[in-house]
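Per your request, structure below.
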């Protein structure tokens, strides 16, 4: 009985302690999210529930409402940064390099639309290395807890036995499967969102479509892949035009990654603006390669 009581008490203390760093976020349409206090004027929350033109409010407690402004968001990693004028509560302490294992006990902490603290406990049911979202954005670690997440938990904290934050809860990145965005991803994406308000996307200026490589050409050039990316468009003044790419080129590799059946997006979106990459392919039945400096895709004007 003593062990049971000790565990129960420790879990409750952890929730109450980390809960001081968790706030309620309400945006347009009555949506309720949670948020994690990063510093006295900054909140981390989920991007999928926030739009720039909305009236965003935060509650540190049920009787303390604060107006928040969207500083930046990235839907691909589901990370948004909010800024306020008033001082917030206690900043969260993140676990810099968590030693996680499947079966480990974890707790998710959030707040309800009234600002009340809520928690859900479970185990880590899935834990893998780096993975990429549908659009190609990198998430440093795949962390999947097995627990019930009620409305409002997205944007809240996932904590381990040391009472430190492992990551931010997200119910948007994989349908029907809540995940935690690890601190490594937050640490990489957050500062860029604060500075720019968005994550710059790579731009090559190429129109590409998958194409089968004839077996005769595979044998002639001793190729190990049977699919490439056919160049169907080269935009004027683009990085690709400057690098000398032509309509009809068949691209094989971009840096260390092959073009394949999945299309070009998963390969291209791993790049970063201003990055130098080598692209190899075939032209007129002969192999060629060219170095290209990746540009930044122009943002859509609303």
């Amino acid at each position: 009985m003593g062990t049971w009581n000790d565990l129960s008490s420790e879990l409750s203390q952890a929730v109450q302690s980390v809960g001081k760093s968790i706030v309620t976020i309400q945006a347009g349409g009555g949506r309720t999210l949670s948020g994690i206090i990063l510093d006295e004027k900054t909140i981390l929350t989920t991007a999928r529930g926030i739009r720039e033109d909305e009236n965003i409010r935060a509650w540190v407690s049920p009787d303390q409402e604060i107006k928040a402004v969207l500083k930046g968001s990235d839907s691909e990693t589901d990370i948004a940064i909010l800024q306020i004028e008033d001082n917030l509560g206690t900043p969260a302490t993140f676990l810099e390099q968590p030693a996680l294992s499947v079966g480990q006990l974890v707790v998710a902490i959030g707040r309800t639309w009234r600002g009340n603290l809520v928690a859900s406990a479970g185990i880590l049911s899935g834990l893998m290395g780096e993975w990429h979202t549908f659009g190609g954005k990198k998430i440093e670690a795949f962390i999947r807890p097995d627990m019930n997440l009620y409305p409002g938990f997205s944007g809240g904290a996932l904590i381990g036995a040391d009472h430190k934050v492992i990551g931010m809860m997200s119910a948007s990145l994989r349908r029907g499967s809540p995940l935690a965005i690890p601190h490594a991803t937050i640490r990489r994406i957050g500062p860029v969102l604060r500075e720019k308000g968005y994550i710059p996307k790579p731009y090559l200026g190429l129109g590409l479509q998958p194409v089968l490589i004839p077996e005769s050409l595979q044998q002639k050039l001793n190729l190990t892949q049977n699919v490439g990316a056919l160049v169907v468009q080269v935009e004027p003044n683009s990085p690709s035009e400057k690098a000398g790419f032509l309509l009809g080129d068949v691209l094989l590799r971009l840096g260390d990654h092959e073009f394949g059946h999945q299309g070009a997006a998963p390969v291209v979106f791993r790049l970063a603006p201003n990055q130098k990459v080598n692209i190899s392919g075939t032209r007129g039945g002969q192999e060629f390669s060219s170095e290209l400096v990746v540009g930044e895709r122009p943002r859509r004007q609303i």
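The radius of gyration is 23 Å.

Regards,
D.
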